Amino acid sequence: MDNMDKKADQSKQTNKTGFEKDFGIDLSTGSSGIEKAIEMGINIEEAGRKFYMEKAAQANIPQVQHHLKRLAEDEIMHTKILQELKESLMGKGEWIGVKELPDTKKRLEELAAFKPGKGPKVEDTSSAIEVLNEALKLEDRVSKFYRGLADELKTDKGQAFFQKLADWEQGHYKLIKKLIEVVHGFEGTWG
Prior knowledge:
The chain is an all-alpha fold. It has helices spanning 3-14, 18-23, 31-58, 62-91, 104-112, 126-152, 156-185. The longest helix is centred in the middle third of the chain and has 30 residues, at 62-91. The radius of gyration is 20 Å and the shape is elongated.
């Protein structure tokens, strides 16, 4: 590589947005950048589903297991929505509208309803807390991915689509945070 090529490559690296640096997707390439971002989203959602199912099978607290399975179901819905978007963009060149997902507020109310002393005693909640902290990091990263993608897109429909996905992931984050509070509140008495 000669000096001109090196300078051009350095200039290209310098002009990259935070999103492009963080996730390695150049949206300035047009539809191929969007397709790559959607594929990455699909892969992220599939990995999230797998994570939640594996961790649900290991959970020693039934309520944690229940909520992890529900999060896995949400990830399946997210994957389907991204696949629908990909098909629509590739087939018709059109963005799709985003459907509403299950209400996080209702799930948060369910968590608030748990009372100490229900179910068998759980001596050690540390593994559940560890899993939930991993889940928090996952949801935070995915939310940032979608929010960054929404910020980078030039179309209103594209921005709205990925902002909605970021909001869903942020809802998952709040749900997991509340679940951690609940598990901490019931240490030694709840299972």
